[in-house]
From TrEMBL:
GO cellular component, as recorded: endoplasmic reticulum membrane
Binding-site residues, heme: H25, H49
Binding-site positions, Zn(2+): H176, H181, H199, H202, H203, H257, H261, H278, H281, H282
Listed name of the protein: Fatty acid 2-hydroxylase
GO terms assigned for molecular function: fatty acid 2-hydroxylase activity; heme binding; iron ion binding
Domain Cytochrome b5 heme-binding: 1-66
InterPro entries linked: Cyt_B5-like_heme/steroid-bd, Cyt_B5-like_heme/steroid_sf, Cyt_B5_heme-BS, Fatty_acid_hydroxylase, Scs7
Pathways involved: Lipid metabolism; Sphingolipid metabolism
Transmembrane segments: 124-142, 154-171, 212-231, 238-260
Cofactor: Fe cation; Zn(2+)
EC nos: 1.-.-.-
UniProtKB keywords: Endoplasmic reticulum, Fatty acid biosynthesis, Fatty acid metabolism, Heme, Iron, Lipid biosynthesis, Lipid metabolism, Membrane, Metal-binding, Oxidoreductase, Transmembrane, Transmembrane helix, Zinc
One of the GO BP terms on file: fatty acid biosynthetic process
UniProt organism field: Popillia japonica
Length: 316
């Protein structure tokens, strides 16, 4: 694809180097490579690129962000200082917050000025299975022991763990749709703070690999609440099995989420479909496609994104 250090395209007379974006482009490398050193203005219009796509393009303008000749007349990044901690700034964005947070950029973000707090918000992907798979297996082990003490039945164990995984997929969908995607009022700094911390920042900096999986400290608090709820809801001989299955479902979800952002799944595979699906959620259908590890509940609740059949497979 030409010079390995750059990949230049032109949009309305301006030059953009999108080399760093190629691995993240929702349409894949093979749909873009033919346009190196060419004008993409009409192509982007013909393909009905989203408002978010035009905004993101400005990140790659050679010589600095394009502030005038694009879909936007205002640069929303003027509202914040990217050299300072972001959390204390976003709460003051008011009615501009929701537009700003859904206008993606390709950058790393600092949330807190305090380094200890900042480190708690950054999680390498491998930390999740390292911590939570042993917890999941331990709960499944405890539940299996209780089954042995009563009337041991391997089908009961498999069924209870499977129920836990299924409950996670419903929880994943419910949190993503009705908590993570609540539209915060510009008058409520608390709601903006919560929304941005738990999910808004991911839509603002979707390519920041340090913020793609859930940090273990807040996850531990949720697990403890979930354990108490399961203990008071399900029979004594199965609640640990269901809890272990739920945690296992969570680990699978976080690993799928990380992979569909940074992996290169093969055409036709399940992860290939989910990567396309999640890309549409990020860049064009913010109010649909809430399933990440599964489309099941999107079908049930009528929020599924219908993926178009492509002339050729996408290669990331």
């Amino acid at each position: 694809m030409g010079d390995s250090d750059s990949f230049s395209v032109q949009y309305v007379g301006q030059n953009y180097d999108i080399r760093e974006f190629l691995r993240n482009h929702p349409g894949g490398v093979n749909y873009v490579q033919a346009y190196e050193d060419r004008d993409v203005t009409q192509k982007m219009l013909d393909m009905h690129h989203s408002k978010a796509a035009f905004y993101l393009l400005r990140e790659y303008k050679i010589g600095g962000r394009d502030l005038k000749r694009n879909e936007h007349t205002d640069d929303l990044e003027d509202l914040v200082d990217w050299n300072k901690p972001m959390l204390r700034q976003v709460v003051n964005l008011g009615e501009k917050y929701y537009e700003w947070v859904n206008s993606p950029v390709d950058r790393h973000m600092t949330l807190f000025g305090n380094q200890i707090l900042e480190n708690l918000t950054i999680t390498p992907w491998y930390v999740v299975p390292l911590i939570w798979i042993p917890v999941s297996f331990y709960l499944i082990y405890l539940g299996s022991i209780k089954q042995l003490e009563t009337s041991y039945n391997i089908l009961n164990i498999i069924g209870a763990v499977g129920l836990g995984v299924l409950l996670w997929t419903l929880l994943e969908y419910s949190l993503h749709r009705w908590v993570f995607h609540i539209v915060p009022s510009g008058k409520s700094k608390i709601v903006i703070c919560i929304h941005f911390t738990i999910h808004g920042l991911h839509h603002k900096v979707p390519f920041d690999s340090r913020r793609l999986v859930f940090p273990p400290f807040p996850a531990a608090l949720i697990v403890m609440l979930g354990y108490y709820f399961y203990w008071n809801t399900f029979p004594e001989n199965v609640y640990e099995l269901i809890g272990g299955g739920t945690i296992l479902g969570y680990v699978l979800y976080d690993m799928v989420h990380f992979y569909i952002h940074h992996g290169n799944p093969n055409e036709g595979s399940y992860l290939y479909i989910m990567k396309r699906y999640h890309n549409h959620h990020h860049f064009s259908h913010h109010e649909a496609g809430f399933g990440i590890s599964s489309q099941l509940w999107d079908f049930v609740f009528g929020t599924v994104i219908r993926l178009k059949k492509l002339a050729m497979g996408i290669r990331w």
